[in-house]
Amino acid sequence: MIEAIDKRLWAWSEYRMGGGMRLGGTGDCVLAAVIAGKGEVIRSSVMEVYIPDEVLDTAQAVDKLPDDLRRVVDVHYLQANLSPDQKAIRCRLSRKTFYRRLDTAHQYVLYLLTPPKRRVQRVTLGRERPQAVRVGQR
What we know:
There is one protein chain. By secondary structure, this protein is mainly alpha-helical. It is about 50% helix and about 5% strand. It has a single domain (about 5-135), classed as Arc Repressor Mutant, subunit A, CATH 1.10.10. A two-stranded antiparallel ribbon has the order 1-2.
């Protein structure tokens, strides 16, 4: 597990679960504001949603994950009250496979959050062994 990515994903899960995104005193969504206002909502009465860039970038990275990895991330971070065995069962995986996929998801998220200029790819130059080369250099 990558600790920095783990922290980002916990912050993402807090916002995803509604801990950091409040739209105003009337509730967590515009629909709640409409119901509370009996069909009338003054646009300025609903505060804007503020999502830190770090959380937004993490959310976009999670959205780009393959389905199997996204499922593991969702279960691990959004259903934190479950035991490790329950999380694995929820994903229909063994516990070992669950944590292996979670680790792979951390690596994917780290890759997606890394600026393109700093990404390193493996390229084969002719018949030589693959070498690490910065993207854009050859």
